[in-house]
Every structure is written in structure tokens, then in C-alpha cells.
Amino acid sequence: MSATLPLPIIAHGAAPARGLAHAWRIACALLVADLRQRTRSLRFWIVALAITVAGWWCLPPVDAGYMIVAIGDHHRGFYSSAWIGMVLAMMSLLWGLVGFYLVRGTVQRDFETRVWQLLGTSSMRRSAYLLAKWASHVAVMGGLLGATLIVGLVAQLVRAEDRHVDLWELVKPSLFIALPTLAFSAMLAIWFDVIPLLRRTAGNIAFFFVWIALLTTGPAGIQHDQAARAADAVAPIEQPWTSDLPAMRVMQWSIEHQVARGLPDKTRLEGFCIGCGGTTAPAARFAWTAWEVRGAVLWGRMLWLAAAIAGVLLAVPLLDWAAARVAAPSAAGHQRAPRSLRWLRALLRPLQGTATGALVAAEVLIVLRMRPLWWWAAWLPLWGLQLFGPRHAVALAMLGGWTLLLDVFSRTGLRDREHRTLDLVATAPGAHRRLLLARATMAIGLAWLAVAPGLLHESFAHPTMTTAAVVIAASIALWGLASAALTRSSRPFELVFIVVAYATTQGAHWLDAGALGNGVTLTHLSGIALAAAILAVSLRVDRPGTRRMP
Amino acid sequence: MNKTCLPAWLVLDGVSFAYGRGPAVNQSLNLTLGPGIVGLLGPNGAGKSTLMRMLATLARPRSGRILWRGTDIAREPDALRATLGYLPQDFGVYPALSAREFLTFLAAVKGLPSRAAAGRVDECLAQVGLLDVADRALAGYSGGMRQRVGIAQALLNDPQLLVVDEPTVGLDPAERLRFRHLLTELADERLVLLSTHIVSDVEASAAALVVLQGGRIVFDGTPQALVVGARGRAWDWTIAPAQLAAARRNFVVSQSMHLGDSVQLRVLGDRPPGAGAVPAEPSLEDAYTDLLARATTSPSDRVEAVA
Q: What is chain A's alpha carbon radius of gyration, rounded to the nearest angstrom?
């Protein structure tokens, strides 16, 4: 017997709602749902707490021994509402970076969870969908900025340098400096979800360099102004209405005209630093009770907001194309066909003799089979440099090798969640311990293999460099796993790695195997011990069967 | 389910479960199970999958105990895991691996000796009919083929307790039939717990039946006992199509079939629904529907006037 009953028709004859009001209602519903989804995760609140704590650290007392935002060498304003607002707004170039990694992924999540199939077949406009996602990004980042402003207000009262509260002056820099910056970052987060190639680790790496490139437009604008002034010996009378994304040029102009003009030695106040670090002298302070800014400048800042919205709308035609290119690891009909890599299977055959060896071999195949051709090709120059380059180039090529393996380090610990195989493996006795051992062995092995030519090259000439590379490689591999165990996300490790790697290329020694002395090696040995401890604890905490939630 | 003639392998003793501080999903479950196929039926949200996850050691009961051959599996999960096969309702695979490689990987995860693993993997692949395509990457497998890989992995360690959660979802009729036969073959010396909402799956293979509703056990016995309990409560009733809506509103209708100018209904209840209704032999599906209806609605709530 089969049921072939007619279904009742609801709202018979009613046409589907259309128009701007309908689009607005849908956008609001999407925004609310998106915000609910985000704010109901523990990770969001941990990041929010971290950012508010960071906001407090940005406002140290006068004798703290460090400064986060300073004018000239060690000058800053008295902690008035206006100066605190300015400091927190200037930090937006960092919030925009961190915020990107926090907010990105919601469009991708809709694709991967197939929620898009429900949304995309409704009467919803694609533009309303993307604008709602963007607004949600901005709301999250703006909310965190708002939290730092509250912290700033508390700091103003606690530091008690200027207790007169002026809420407009507190908020004004955030509205006109920070908000457009964050909005632009939010727009980029949409694009990095839409373009399949940028959805995962490659996008997380690429964004860092995009952001650095955007930031360099600030100093470039300032240098241009200074060069023009030197040539004419006259400062521009009017504040420039155009600005770089983080508004460094606007801030520089304000500093020169609001502070430096009143002081005899202007050169001491030229330029400013963000994230200055330790200072030897106590902060020298000046009065900053209001940010003097022309209306045209504020409108100029709004251009960045408009650019962000335009950028979002530009992505609309690509949305359906992007949704069809779902790269969910567990999705049916997954991406490209994997390579068979018969040579690798032959190489790994000796490992198949033991259960642990078989696991390691499977792990290696899992991480290497889906690699595109360019990835394999990239090893040729890197290994060539390691084999034949000078010491400095060898160290850089080693760093490049680890960067190519970044997703292996950051995602291996998350694979069972991403591929939805957790229930399959977690019901086996001792599975977590066995898998962790295999994955750590695989990750460390690949990290060493990535620098093997360099190790060969330097083993006789610079044995300390060889030791350092071996230790750094193991440290990176273990910290990738430990970070995944701690945060259940690949992004924190990817962000930290790429920042540290970039700093290393700029002269820091954090990942520099070629650094003189044993300092780097000893630091990473401590790091290995700490990462191993975190992993050992995670084995106990995350033991299957101890979880209440499925 | 007290089977005095069979050994008690799995005992649920007052088992309850809740997510966080939320309401209980399972409440005071008591069961004693021995070897054979046990069907677990229940509507969506009845707590079947949660119970399955507890039995698979993936979730711990809030209260009560689950004993596998006398050992509390919340305290010593590995005692069960060594002999557990679990097919979750929803699972993924590593698309870069072939089925053989994936099963070899899982055999290693389950701690199977590497020498025995290769042979066992091929046996399991053969059992689910995937041996011919075992070296193809899983990325190219259809949904049904992936489901068969899931079944194969559950069999790798030759489990004594096989927990299968909605195993036939996504399978075509031929695959479903093959799976039912496979389950019957496997049931000789195992306890197979088959959770489903497809009554015909249970009818075809289960010797025992547990029905959950609202987190509680509302039936525990054999499928035949459930059918016997519904005897005298099933009626075949032919009505005009115009009366259909009222009939569905006022009676428990388990089946209906359009016959051109009339509709034949299978109605469940103490008394005939109206003139012309004739007693019928209830099927397991009728008995199951009747049981759920009785558990949720008292007869006095229903009005008996249609015709």
C-alpha cells in the first residue's frame, strides 16, 4: 500500500515576496542567524577575551617600560578619551588582521554543510546573502572593537591621567579610522571564501601578505608627503582627504599639526610606531583632548567603506560558481582525483610490516596524494637552494619548505573532524594514542625531509645549523599538532607561523636555522617539551568515551 | 529484553543521558541482550542514535551503567572497543585513499596485527562486494559504495558487538537486500544492534525488537509479540476520497491506497472506524504505528464520527 495523498496548499495563489523590503528582511535574518552561530562557540568568546585583554595592554601606565603606540621615540598623549580612542583605532591594523582569521569561513561553511542548497534555492538575492555575511563579519569585528573601547574607558578612569570622559572623542577615531579598515578586511574575508584556491591554508598564508601589502601604502603616503614638504619647505595647509587603508597618513598629519606645531623640537615627534615594545625612558606625554579632523577627511575614510561594499557586490556573480566548487574534505565527488603516487607506495612498503608503520604510511599517502603539481614543482628551487645556496639562502629555503608543509602541520590533528571519520577511529581501543604517534612521526618526518638537502649541505660546514634545523622542524611539527588539539582550528597556528616566518625573513631569529649560537635551538627544545606536554594532556582530556557531546 | 535461554552479553541498567543541562534524551533504560539481531525502532528524536553512541563508547551515560559481559564500558571502554564494530549514521572517508588502503589504515587503528590485516581487509571487501573496485580512490565512490565501505570497516575486527545506525540510508533496493542478507549471516555468534526507522529492515532480519519513544523504551520483545499485541486493532476501511481528510484527522491511519473513486485505509483502533470496516491481520508496521499512537494519544482524545 502506498500513500498518495494530496498535500495541502498553503497560502494558495500568494506570489513569493519580492522587492527591497523582502531582501532587507532576508539579509537581517541571515545576519542574525550568522551572529548566533558565531557567538555560540566557545572559541569566539576566548578570542573576544584575548582581544579585550590586549586592549588593556595597549594602554600601559607611564612607567610600564613598554609602549604599544608611541609618537617619535617615546611620546604619547595623556590618557584622555580622545587619545585612548586614537590608540585603539590605530590598533585596527592589527585587529583587521586577527579579525580576518576570526571571521572568515562562514560562506565556506554554508557551502560545505550544504546549507547553501537551502538558501540558494530560495527567493533570496545573492547580493543580500553576501552583504549579510559581510555585515556579520563587520558586526563581529566592530563588537570586539566596542569591547576594547569599554576597556579603554576603564583604563582612562584607572590610569587617571585625564578623567574627563568624552564619549564622542572616544568613539570618533574608531568610527572613521578603524571601522573602514575592518570593513575592508571583512570584504576580503568574503572573497577568500568565494575563491576556492583561497579557502584553506593557502588563503590564510596569502591574506597575511595581502594585508602587509595594504599596510605598506601607509608609510608610502607619509614618505610622499614628507618628500613634497622637503621639496617645497612648506607643509600642506589642508589635511589630505584621501588616505591609505589604515589611515596612517591621516594620523601622521594630525600628529604633526596638533602636537608637533606646539613643540620646539619637531623632529622628536616625527613618525609614530605601533607595537613599539620596550622603552628605556618613561613615556613623555602631551595633551590630546580632541582629534581635529576635517569633514572631507571623514568622507574620504567612508570611501574605504564604500569600496568594501562594492567589493562584496563584485563577488556576487561568482557565488553560484563558488558554491559548485565545494572543497569539503568529506564531500562526495571531492575535488580533483588523487594521484596514485606508486613510487611513494613502493618507498613506504617497508613500513607496512608493523601496525604503527602502516599507520604512518597511510598518513603520508593521505597528506601527499591530493597535492597539485605546482606544489611538487615548488620543491625543486627550494631544494636546489638548500643544496647549493649560501648559508642565509639555505636558511630561507628551509623556511620555504616548512611553509609549503604548513597545512600538514596545522590540519593533521584536525583531520578526523574535517573528514568526519572521528566516530570510525574513536571506537577502536587506544586509537588516539596510536594515531597521535603516527601523525607526529609523519609530521616530523616530513618537516625533516623538507630540509634534508640543507641538512646534507650544512652538516659538515655548520653542524650547529644542522642541529638547529632538526630541532626547529620537530618543534614546528609538534606545535602544529598541539595547536590543533588546543584550539580545534588550524587558523591560530597558521597565523602565528606566518607572522613568525615573516619576522624571520625580516631579521628575527625565531625560525632561522642559520642564526649564530644555540639560542634558537634551546628555545625550540623548550617548545618541543611544552608541545609534547600539551599533546599528552590532550590524550587524556580528549579520550573517546569521556566526551558527553557527540 | 530478558532472554533466559541466552547469555546476557549487554546489560543496560537504568541508563539515562542528557546533553549538558538539557532535558534527558534517554531515561532509565533497562535492557538485557544476548547474541542475535536486535532491531531498535523509534521515530526521529526518540533517542536511538544517542543510545547507539553510548553503546559505541562515544558518549557516557549521565546515570546508570552499561555492562558488556560484566564490565562497565564507561569505566573501561577498551574492554568493549576491542570487540566492537560501529557503523555511524553519518561518517566520512579519506578521499585520497583507495578502499583497500582506507581499510588497512583503519585495521591498524583498531590494532589488528599487520600480517592478518591484509587478508582481513580483503575478506571484508568481499563481504560487501567491493573487492573488484578496492583499489579505486574513495573520491570516486558513490554514496552507496561509501556506505558499504563503512559496513566493511565495522567488520574488520570480527566484532562480537556490531552497532549499526541507520545502515540502509542511501542504499538502493538491491544493496539494501544484500545488506539484510549480510546482517543475517553475521548474526550467528554476535550481538547485532540495528537502529533504523525503516520497519521493513527490522522485519526482514531482527529476531528481537526494542522500540524507543521520547527517550523511553515502550516495547521490548519479539516482532511477533508486537504484531500479536495489535491483533484485533487493525481494520481495512474503504471510503470516498472526500472523507479522507476527516479520517486521517480522527483515526490512526497506518496505510492508504487510492483505488480510483475510493480510498482503502488501514485504520488502527479498538473499534471499527465506521460502517464497512473489516478486521485485518496487522503487519509489523501496523503494530509499530499502533504502539506509537497509543503511547502518545489516549483513545478518548479521538472523535469517532466520520461517515
A: 27
Give me the amino acid identity at B177. L
Three-class SS state of B85: strand
Predicted ipTM > 0.90: no
Q: For chain B, positions 228-267, list CB contacts with chain A under 8 A.
A: 244, 248, 255-258, 264, 266
CA distance, residue B259 to nearest chain A CA (Å): 11
> H or E stretch including B244?
helix B244-250
Interface test with A, best of B104, B109, B147, B286 (most A CBs within 10 A): B109
Buried b (16+ CB within 10 A) or exposed e, A468-506: bbbbbbbbbbbbbbbbbbbbebbbbbbbebbeebeebee
Nearest-10 crossing angle of helices A519-541, A463-487: 30
Which regions of A167-235 does DSSP assign to beta strands (E)?
none
3-state secondary structure of A112: helix
Please name which of B77, B56, B64, B81 lies closest in space to residue B165, comparing C-alpha atoms: B56
Any idea how long chain B is? 307
Which of A399, A418, A360, A359 minimizes the C-alpha distance to A502? Answer: A399
* Cα distance between residue A88 and residue A450, in whole Å: 41
Q: What is the pLDDT along chain A (550 residues), one digit of tens a residue?
A: 334 444 444 444 444 455 777 777 778 888 888 888 888 888 888 888 988 899 999 999 988 888 888 887 778 889 999 999 999 998 888 889 999 999 999 999 888 877 887 787 777 788 989 999 999 999 999 999 999 999 999 999 999 899 899 999 999 999 999 999 999 999 999 999 999 999 989 999 999 999 999 888 877 777 777 777 666 655 555 667 778 888 888 888 888 778 766 666 655 556 778 878 787 777 888 888 999 888 888 888 999 999 999 999 999 999 988 988 875 554 444 456 788 888 999 999 999 888 889 999 999 999 999 899 999 999 999 999 999 999 999 999 999 999 999 999 999 999 998 888 988 888 888 888 999 999 999 999 999 999 999 999 988 888 899 999 999 999 999 999 999 999 889 999 999 999 999 999 988 889 998 887 788 999 999 999 999 999 999 987 755 444 433 3
Across the interface, of A354, A420, A427, the residue whose CB is closest to B81 is: A427
In sequence order, which residues have a C-beta less than 8 Å from that of residue A273 and are 6 or more positions away?
A67, A69, A70
- Helices and strands in chain B, H and E counts: 10, 14
From CA B277, how far away is CA B266, in angstroms rounded? 9
Query: Which of B298, B282, B163, B291 is closest to B217 using CA atoms?
Result: B291
Check: CB of residue B268 under 8 Å from CB of residue B254.
yes
The DSSP letter of residue B98 is B
Question: Which residues of chain B are within 8 Å of residue A434 when distances are taken between CB atoms?
Answer: 108-109, 111
Separate counts of helices (H) and strands (E) for chain A? 25, 4
* Type of residue found at B101: E
Distances (CA, A) of A507 to A454, A470, A500, B244: 20, 20, 11, 81
3-state DSSP call for residue B18?
strand
Tell me how far CA of residue B182 lies from CA of A541, B37, B122, B132, B162, in angstroms: 38, 12, 16, 18, 12
